[in-house]
């Protein structure tokens, strides 16, 4: 089952059970540290989350407010990066669908390995545009060299 199919199933399951909406809490990957963020995500799933939005910390979060910026900074200080947050996502995705929210720069920084890692994950990723270029999907057509 694809990530999109898992997400659609989560919303359909919430509707079928008579709830008005699916519960999709947000979690900054790596905050306050990688192990704790993994445990928080697993606890979200145990507590009934239908899916989880997992943020990837970024050093210059232009589209985020002060709370998420502070979580970004703390997660980066604790050693979080895209590959490590994807491992958190993989652990959580065994229990509940995960939507990874990531600025495009961390994906493009090591495009071949990062885009490949995201494509192989049982998650759906959404990259926020943070460049001035034309819209693109960095995970579908990642450059082969820098």
Task: Please describe what this structure looks like.
46% of the residues lie in helices and 12% in strands. It is α/β, with parallel strands linked by helices and 146 residues long. The protein has one domain (3-8, 22-128): TIM Barrel. The protein has a four-stranded parallel β-sheet with strand order 1-2-3-4. Helix 2 (34-46) links the parallel strand 1 (26-28) and strand 2 (52-55). Helix 2 runs parallel beside helix 4 (82-93). It is globular and about 40 Å long. The N and C termini lie far apart (32 Å). Residues 141-146 have low confidence and may be disordered.
Q: In the CATH hierarchy, what is the class? A: Alpha Beta
Spatial extent as radius of gyration = 15 Å
Which superfamily, in CATH terms, is the homologous superfamily?
Aldolase class I
> Ends: how far apart?
32 Å
Using the 3D structure, state the CATH architecture.
Alpha-Beta Barrel
Strand content: 5-15%
What average pLDDT do the residues reach?
A: 82
